[in-house]
Amino acid sequence: xxxxxxxxxxxxxxxxxxxxxxxxxxxxxxxxxxxxxxxxxxxxxxxxxxxxxxxxxxxxxxxxxxxxxxxxxxxxxxxxxxxxxxxxxxxxxxxxxxxxxxxxxxxxxxxxxxxxxxxxxxxx
Length: 124
Fold this sequence. Notes:
Family: Belongs to the FliS family.
Distance between the termini: 33 Å
Keywords: Bacterial flagellum biogenesis, Cell projection, Chaperone, Cilium, Cytoplasm, Flagellum
Largest sheet: none
CATH superfamily: Flagellar protein FliS
Shape: globular
Number of helices: 5
Mean pLDDT: 90
Subcellular location: Cytoplasm, Cytosol
GO biological process, one term: bacterial-type flagellum-dependent cell motility
InterPro entries: FliS, FliS_sf
Radius of gyration: 16 Å
CATH topology: Four Helix Bundle (Hemerythrin (Met), subunit A)
Structural class: mainly alpha
């Protein structure tokens, strides 16, 4: 088996065996990575890369929003609203090629990622 195939298999196995909390932190980690890469791509006028990364980030935000149980806790509606705002900002940033809007989204999401990571590690 080739190295890329082994890596893909390892990643798929990691996803398939991860707890829900770990999956959430993995999504946030990838979202932040996409935002950092898209911000850099916009600043370097790499439009195709920026569009690809922002589109993927939007898909992750949609997944986070769709999987959020609004009835589960009091803060869920606020988080859903934040996801809606982030999605709108990312679409606008992609259209306007605005790295500062991407950076603003990243700055809002990084503390959430850190909080979810802390909660996940406390639960294990």
